[in-house]
Amino acid sequence: MKTAETVLQVKGLTKIYKSLFTSAGVKAVDNLNLSIRRGETYSIVGPNGSGKTTTLKILLGLIFPTAGTTSIFGKSISDLSVRERIGFLPEDAYLYDCFNGEELLDFYAGLFGYPKKKRRQLVDELLALVGMQANRKVPFRECSKGMRQRLALAQALVNDPELLILDEPTSGLDPAGRHQMTLLILEMKKRGKTLLLCSHFLAEVEEVCDRVGVMYRGSLVAEGTLQELAGGPTQVRITTDKLQPQAMDAISRMASVVTVEGGAITMGAEATNSSVWTVLEKVNEAGGEVLEVLRPRPTLQDVFVKAIGASAEENQ
Questions:
Q1: 94-105 pLDDT, tens per residue?
Q2: Do 272 and 182 meet the contact criterion of CB atoms below 8 Å apart?
Q3: In the predicted structure, residue 206 carries a pLDDT above the cut 90
Q4: Buried b vs exposed e over 139-161: b needs ≥16 C-beta within 10 Å?
């Protein structure tokens, strides 16, 4: 079986910032090693100050490491041919607020050298992808947080990147906005993009990622698939009330539902957050009331808390 190509490789990465309070400086990243394969979605999670953003800045060539090596597509980030193949969505997108969405994307497409006809086509495709067609003429400075994030993602996709780096893509969004952003990330995954993301919303990470790395004090303290880290998934059980028999029958025919008995809906072990969300919406539409949602399998939050706690004890 052929091994997937390694898109991003980090070996012994260390970053020490100078400090007025200690001659040793502040170690933001400590001997970090990780690799990401083509088509994989990898998430770095960790508490504030764990080195996530510093790591991304090094990978993007914005700052330089104190020690260690990084390579993307087998080359240095300083190579312009590498940068042309990367898209980046920062946590707070500071784009030109004098432009509306249409003008903004046209401007960035121009920087990549697209001819005018191709730019028009590309702008239409990207606005449709992120759901901003109706608001394409709204100036960026007047956009809501959710609209800004969607336009920023569209800007990151202008060059059709092979590697997409997302820093807190759902930060500051309401639940509906987070759900929409998660669906967009899943669409990028379906299109074969390689994704590296940092996020504090662990439920979204569970939904989209193939592998997760937990960072604490600049080091990777746990890494693997959710099954490797938390064990195999178990069933999801939703308890409802005030739901008519015909509504239960309709829900029982959904592919993600295993059985419906009385007021209990049981979903299979492969149930994703998105499929659970869909069932909950169906219950709500049918006038039912959700009493309880149980997912017995350990969540990524459980894994996160356990890994951080164990590392903190070791450092005491």
A1: 788 889 999 999
A2: no
A3: no
A4: ebeebeebbbbbbbbbbbbbbeb
Query: 71-75: which pairs have CB atoms within 8 A and are 24 or more residues apart?
Result: 71/8, 71/9, 72/7, 72/8, 72/9, 72/163, 73/7, 73/162, 73/163, 74/6
Whose CA is closest to 16, among 38, 31, 35? 31
DSSP class of residue 100 equals B
Is 73:85 a contact under the CB 8 Å cutoff? Answer: yes
Q: Which residues of 203-235 are buried (b: 16+ CB within 10 A; e: fewer)?
A: ebbbbbbebbbbbbbbbbbbbeebeebbeebeb
What lies within 8 Å, CB to CB, of 190 at 6+ separation is none
Report which residue type is found at 138: V
Global confidence as pTM: 0.75
User: In which band, very low, low, confident or very high, does the pLDDT at 296 lie, cut at 50, 70 and 90?
Assistant: low
**In whole angstroms, what separates CA 295 from the centre of its chain?**
22
In sequence order, the β-bridge partners of residue 211 are 42
The pair of three-digit structure tokens given for residue 313, joined into one six-digit string: 């004890």
Distance of CA 212 to the CA centre of its chain: 11
Q: Each residue of 226-245: pLDDT tens digit?
A: 878 876 656 788 888 888 88
Helix (H, G, I), strand (E, B) or coil at 197: strand
